[in-house]
Specification:
Mean pLDDT: 91
Number of domains: 4
Number of strands: 22
CATH class of the largest domain: Alpha Beta
Structural class: alpha/beta
Helix content: 25-40%
CATH architecture of the largest domain: 3-Layer(aba) Sandwich
Largest sheet: 7 strands, parallel
Number of helices: 18
Distance between the termini: 47 Å
Strand order of the largest sheet: 8-7-6-9-10-11-12
Length: 530
């Protein structure tokens, strides 16, 4: 088994280097330029990096026998994953090695902010003994709002419970059983922000979560509340936070990450009611060892023919299986986006049912793709085709697939059923021909919708009411929203109908509320298929 050549491009803990000796020789290529790595990688079997080295497409293209690239950390922004995938090179990362470190840092910032520790430290160092000035607040008996209950958010909740804090959490993709196991109470984002004395953010940074905490959300918080962000810069709208802190909308903030990365907003960090650290969440000796060991162990596993623990990219599939699956991937992604838009709350079970040419093997693969689209925007760890099932399992979500003969008049039908806090919801799509999918059912309502652009879903207790379309068109037109098309569901459910209105852009909250107030409207949802 021995004899493999492993390039280590960034400093790695000795514990990791010793593990690599099981299968070969570790070559330290520290501070190599791209040109030097292009030359060195030609006969390498594995590559380990941290955040300091960029693994570009030219480096990957120069690899003659590279089997795996391991990132000793979470993010893989410095690895051209697409280039590695094209070459059939596995990319792995280490998303759990810093969980405890990040959670502990969050708790440390919470306590430091509550007791004014950095400010008192600086004052005393400067010769001022000012006990009255730095009177703080005890945390026991207070409420901690946790935004995102992934691995780190859950660990923070456990630690906070030990300090006597009550836990409220917002996470639309978490099973109720997991919430209960943490002794937490689940709520909407607005409910959590309004109730919490401390709010800590633990979501991934995606287009959906960018600016998740902005002016509107900050105004919901208590004036004495403190906001903590050890997740990603950009989740908190920093100009809005700066204004809120200056105006006293909230009492303070504790920040480890910033939208500007290593160049934080100087006005923000200069405020007396802000404490900051330079992205130290994962900076413990133990975390450095953990990610080094995790990365090295995965390299050894891959070179020994075993599956890695945390693969990032998709493995190769048999061409005949991939050909069928690839046709349905956009359709299952569409169904996942629909479920996300329907806002069912904490998900406890996901099932995909297929008919026609879809076999059980196809459905297993498509379920993974469905879970990626459903979970990736809302969890604080990488989600991909390979680890989607494990991520769902970690969050207490049951996953199932079934083959059915019920095709509802379509040759190839796929149905996605979700059980969640708000009940059971199903959406279905049909593949009319290769690459041409349609949404054919939304929670029992029969439609035939081309999944492009933005759609406004309207539930109407008075289907067929004269003049409704005109009033809706006037309302949207006055707001500058163009209607691209209208479709009315072919059936009614308990006297209620559904209308799907394709619009040129998403509606703001105020306009959406006006639509809800139209006669007969009971509910609206917006889905962006693009």
């Amino acid at each position: 088994m021995a004899g493999y050549r492993i390039l280590v491009c960034d400093p790695l803990a000795e514990e990791g280097l010793r593990i690599l000796e099981e299968v070969g020789e570790a070559d330290l290529c520290l501070q190599f330029t791209e040109a030097q790595l292009v030359e060195a990688i030609s006969d390498a079997d594995a590559l380990i990096v941290r955040s300091g080295t960029q693994i570009t497409a030219p480096i990957i293209e120069a690899a003659g026998q590279l089997k795996v690239i391991a990132r000793a950390g979470v993010g893989v922004d410095n690895v051209d994953v697409a280039a590695a995938t094209r070459r059939g090179i596995l990319v792995v990362n280490c998303p759990t090695g810093n969980t405890i470190a990040a959670a502990e840092h969050t708790i440390a910032l919470l306590l430091a902010a509550a007791r004014n520790i950095p400010q008192a430290h600086s004052a005393l160092k400067a010769g001022a003994w000012e006990r009255k000035r730095f009177i703080g607040h005890q945390v026991s008996g207070k409420t901690l709002g946790v935004i995102g209950l992934g691995k780190i958010g859950s660990e923070v909740a456990r630690g906070a419970r030990g300090l006597g804090l009550q836990i409220m959490a917002y996470d639309p993709y978490i099973a109720p059983e997991h919430v209960a196991s943490l002794g937490a109470q689940i709520g909407s984002l607005s409910e959590v922000l309004a109730a919490a004395d401390f709010v800590t953010v633990h979501t991934a940074l995606t287009e959906e979560t960018r600016g998740l905490i902005s002016t509107e959300q900050l105004e919901l918080m208590k004036p004495e509340a403190i906001l903590i962000n050890c997740a990603r810069g950009g989740i908190v709208d920093e100009p809005a936070l700066l204004e809120a802190l200056r105006m006293g909308t909230i009492a303070g903030a504790a920040l480890d990450v910033f939208a500007g990365g290593s160049e934080p907003n100087p006005e923000l960090i200069a405020l007396d009611n802000v404490i900051v650290t330079p992205h130290l969440g994962a900076s413990t000796a133990e975390a450095q060892v953990n990610v080094a060991v995790d990365a090295a162990r995965q390299v050894v596993d891959v070179l020994s023919g075993q599956p890695p623990r945390w693969p990032v990219n998709m493995p190769s599939l048999p061409p005949e299986i991939l050909a069928v699956v690839d046709q349905y991937v956009p359709l299952v992604a569409t169904l996942a986006k629909l479920h996300s838009a329907l806002g069912m709350g904490g998900v406890s079970r996901v099932e995909l049912r297929g008919s026609g040419e879809l076999s059980a093997d196809h459905l297993v693969m498509l379920t993974r793709h469905f879970l990626v689209t459903l979970l990736a925007p809302v969890v604080d760890e990488p989600v991909n085709y390979v680890n989607a099932m494990a991520v769902a399992e970690d969050r207490g979500i049951q996953v199932a697939q079934s083959k059915t003969s019920t095709a509802r008049g379509y040759a190839n039908l796929i149905e996605a059923i979700i059980e969640a806090d708000a009940g059971t919801c199903s959406v279905a799509g049909a593949l009319l021909q290769p690459g041409e999918g349609r949404v054919v059912e939304i929670d029992g309502f029969e439609v035939e919708l081309i999944p492009t652009g933005v759609a406004l879903l309207i539930w109407n207790a008075q289907p067929g009411q004269p003049g409704f379309v005109g009033r809706l068109g006037t309302l949207l037109g006055d707001a500058g929203i163009s209607i691209m098309g209208i479709q009315v569901a072919r059936n009614e459910i308990e006297g209620q109908g559904m209308m799907v209105v394709r619009v040129a852009e998403a509606l703001g909250s105020s306009l959406r509320e006006q639509v809800v107030q139209l006669p007969g409207v009971t509910r609206t949802e917006i889905v962006n298929f693009d």
